[in-house]
Specification:
This protein is an alpha+beta fold and 104 residues long. The chain is built from four helices and five strands; from the N terminus they run βαβααββαβ.
Amino acid sequence: MIVRNRLVNTLGVRGGYGWRRTQEEIMLDILQIATTPTGRTRLMSLANTAWHPFQKYVSRLKSLDLLNETTRGRGVIYFTTEKGKDALRKREALWKDLGIKYES
């Protein structure tokens, strides 16, 4: 079985042809992207999220100590904490145990 990251089939959305990520997948995408320290705009763009949902996801990840931020010059840089990296490793181990091939 192959599961594609970022895509979950949600029949009935956009005429039955739509693909939509879950909130958990979006947050895991943010963590994965931020394993390399990344600016706000680039992180938002790579995670393919709008501003308001992005704020909600970042706030949640920070409250769980999975993501942290620092200022550099005039901008904010986000990075995945060790706890966040551990969460990503656990996801990969779980998928491996279930025999699911993960495509990022």
